[in-house]
Predict the 3D structure of the following.
Amino acid sequence: VVPVGDDGDARQLAMLAVNPATAYLLLNRYVSLQPGDWVGQDMGNSAVGQYVIALARHAGIKTLSVVRREETAGQLRALGADLVVVDGDNLHDRIAAALDGAELRLVLDGVGGATPGELAHSLEFGGLVVSYASVTRTPVAVPAADLVYRELGIRGFWLINWIRDAPRAEIEATYAELAGLVEDGTISAAVEATYPLTDYREAFARARKPQRSGKVLFTFTGTG
Ligand SMILES: NC(=O)c1ccc[n+]([C@@H]2O[C@H](COP(=O)([O-])OP(=O)(O)OC[C@H]3O[C@@H](n4cnc5c(N)ncnc54)[C@H](OP(=O)(O)O)[C@@H]3O)[C@@H](O)[C@H]2O)c1
């Protein structure tokens, strides 16, 4: 248990444990990112993706996010996303054109399949793809030419391993920092709907639907 303060939006604080920490570790654990560096990600409108955008912006790091729906691009730009590209034909050409000569230092993948490979095409020499999910249930596909000639790397990340293995002080410090950023509104994730526990069937049905505008949460009397 890591206590957090009473300030801030209870719904946002309720989401602190998993996705903000995931985004934070993805950005901080693998590559020493400096202000002005570029990070690419797919599933940009997922909760993890939204936290990546907000945390990167807070640190002066630029983001290129791939989404699968045009209507989510505006939502991400309002969050501070630097570049948003809609998945589809000639994706790697459109990513390279959007970057206008810049290279990605890190690619974060939650989709699996071909999309991370399209992003990886714009990675710097020796750059890294970190996979944290595969919502398409297909393996990360990075073309051999990129992998071999440009010596790219692919890593996996699972938050539970960090919680299991990291020193207690590191876990407490990470959540304290993230709680502060939630409380002052620096990071947040969109919420589509809230339900009382009694309506759990409707809540689960809604949460299972694709193309949501945000998370589906339970509320308890007195928490709003
Ligand atoms: N490795 C870890 O430690 C770790 C930690 C946290 C989360 N995760 C995983 O990360 C994933 C995202 O979690 P979240 O809570 O951020 O998700 P979320 O907010 O519920 O959003 C789901 C995302 O998945 C996209 N999506 C669903 N099916 C897709 C498909 N077939 N192709 C492309 N995109 C698809 C959705 O796009 P639309 O909006 O267009 O439908 C949306 O962007 C989950 O699989 C979760 O289990 C892993």
